[in-house]
Amino acid sequence: MKGGLVVFLLLICFSANTQELLKSPDSLAVLIRSMPAEDTATINLRNQYVKQALFANPADSSLMEFTQQTLDTAEKIGYQKGVLHAYERLALISQYSFSNPYKALDYYHKALSVAENNPGLITYKWGIKGGIATIYYEQEEFHNALRSFKEIIRRNKNLELTATANIANVYGAVENIDSAIYFYRKALQHPQTEENPTFKANLYSNLSLMYGKSENAELAVSCAEKSLALINTHGIEFVRPTAYANTSMAYLKAGDLTKAEFYGRESLKLSELQGNLFLQKSAWGTLADVYAAKNDFQNALQAHIRYSALKDSLNNQNRRVAINRKQMEFDFEKERTLTQAEIARQVLIKKATLLIGIGLLIISVLAFIFYKRRRDMLEQKKEAEFNALVSDTELKALRAQMNPHFFFNSLNSIGDYIAKNDNQSAQDYLIKFAKLMRAVLENSEFREIPLAEELKFIELYLQVETKRLPGKFSYKINVEDGLETENILVPPLLLQPFIENSIWHGFKEKENRGNIVIDFKRKDHMLLCSVDDDGQGGKNQTTGTGKKSLGIVITENRIQILNKQKNASGKLQIMQKLNNTGTRVEVSLPLQTAF
Amino acid sequence: MITAAIIDDEQQSTDRILTLLAPYTDKIKTVCFNTAEKAVQGIDALHPDIVFLDVHLHDKTGFDVLEAITYLDFSLIFVTAYEQYAIKAFKFSAIDYLLKPIESDDFRNALQKAIEKVKQNQLGERIRVLLSNLSAENTNKKISIPSKEGYSFLNISDITRCDADVNYTHIFTANGIKYTVSKPLKHFEGLLTGHGFFRIHNSHLINLNYVKSYAKSGIVTLSDNTKMVVSVRKREAFVKACESL
Prior knowledge:
With 595 residues, chain A is an alpha+beta fold. Among the domains of chain A are: 196-315, Serine Threonine Protein Phosphatase 5, Tetratricopeptide repeat (Alpha Horseshoe), CATH 1.25.40.10; 394-593, 2-Layer Sandwich (Heat Shock Protein 90). Chain A contains 23 helices and eight strands. In chain A, the strands form two sheets. In chain A, strands 2-4-5-7-6 form a five-stranded mixed β-sheet, with helices on one face. In chain A, strand 6 and strand 7 form a beta hairpin. The radius of gyration of chain A is 61 Å and the shape is rod-shaped. Chain B has helices at 11-21, 36-46, 62-68, 84-93, 104-116, 123-134, 185-192, 235-243, and strands at residues 2-7, 28-33, 50-54, 56-57, 60-61, 75-80, 96-99, 142-146, 151-155, 159-165, 168-173, 178-181, 197-201, 204-207, 211-214, 219-222, 227-229. The radius of gyration of chain B is 20 Å and the shape is elongated. The chains are: A alpha+beta (595), B alpha/beta (245). The interface between A and B is medium-sized, with 13 and 14 residues.
């Protein structure tokens, strides 16, 4: 049996919306023209129009272009649902109007990728899969088709009816007639069937074919007639050629060859009109059977030749291979796209990780630098504080060292004085010395004292020494005009050792009266102090004996410490005048003021 | 006839004062005590006009004597060797003192002042200032401000600032009164540093408790809205002092 045709039960979710169904393609076309071109509603309507127009007139080749326009518009405005449906329509048109399963498969895959890339459209996936499954079926890849349809039933209740019907189709195609009948009947009992005369007509038509195959001619004719009645009532032109082919088969089985031939020829005529090669093939197959039954062998042969030619052209192995290749290509392409997306994602992750890593590294480095700087600063500060402490201690130690040195010298001079003079003078001397001691004690408490205090001290000291050595020397203290003696700060008892040296060593062996000139003046940011005498103290001051006096060493150290603390360049210079005619000591200090 | 009491535990010290008083024997008669207890009894009994009081009296001090006596109408001259804390307290309370060894010129001046002001006003109050300054408690310490009329006693915490005016110092209090003293600002700096005062400038000593705000530009504003410049050199130390307050 070459004839008979199972109508593909399109896996489109037929809308239950009666209003929509009631609208004729023509009225929809009018409505579409009245609407703005680039609008989602317009695109929905256009897609709906194509669906209905396709069923109404599968041969309408203009639908392809129309749908392509819909697709372009939907893509332009980024309306993904519209894009998806447009692809679906294009697939249907390719499959049924142009008998081009490659193209159909192509469009289905495009639709599928849209559905998979848009979470909101994922529900349409199964409809598209169904479309692809019908192509498997059409290409006699029954195993795949059956698997797909069963999966669809499991995954999507909405598509249960169409999937059930298509399972029946597949069983029919693999000549598992009982199963086919079972599934067709199941589909007919499905509540959605009543709402959809097209579907119902299809089901009856197909069931008729199955009954025919199971040699149940009576039921076959009955079903075929039910189908035709529905087609006529509802004007379901889409199903008509197939239904005619099946009806022809049913009558052939029932032995009504006239009717069989009539429907066969009608089917052929309609399918030629539609340009549907599958239908033509089927119609020729049916006619071949009819002519054979009528013993019109010439026509039967002709029909068979046509049938075989069509079958070969439609269904040859090459084509199957091509489809498989196409499928593989799609799978590969899909995989490649996915892989590329994954690669892109990985690259992005890599880049992001790298960026974050670099960022963290920079932050860490910066943090470390800041931390190090801060630590170094703190360390430096600590060190400076420590140094200051050390220096301070040193200063105190130096003062402690200097004071007894000075005191014992002074006590010696008191003893000297007492031995030589009367008690009243000793008393006066003692009081001066007590004052001097008090001044030393008080001033020693401070690191710096006002110059005025130092001057008072020097004066007091010189008074004491003058008393001790009356007539031996005279002194003069010069303070530069405008020097703020109250405000300028100096280390206490700084010059005392040099004055002491002048008096004790410079004048000891001197015949005539010695002179000491003490000078304070300012030069830029330095305070210049000098002790100038005309004694013969050269050999005792410094280089003469090669050994520095204790006072000089101490003063040098004090100036050094002061330099360190104030970051200054104070210095001590001791100069011997020619022919041992005197010594000049110069001390330069950083000029410090209290305010 | 003026009675002078000499209170010292060392005979040599007493003798020294007696020697220094020798030229005045026609005007001054002397009485000597070598312990704190005897001194208290003697002063209360004899009501001397001038008292030479040593700070160090064995295991007691001259301050113990002052705390114990009831008679307070005399000129007080402390005698001390090197009690720096006591010297500061004398300055606070404007009480005269002599340093050992006593210089005859100093002695003459002090004695002259004592004789002129035999009936010194407010000795009791000044002794209270003295003792309060010597006590460990840091509450409400006072300072005696000498003037022509006598003495003013100010709470240290009431003084907002001291301004230098050559050898005079103007002292300002929180209630807006200005006192002028014939002592240099340095004198008050020595006394008040350590009592929340800070010398921000050559001529300004301020009480840090009255600082209202301080601008980075170096201008400090006191609670009475007086604005003063802090010397550049003093700014760092000033901020530190304010923080540690």
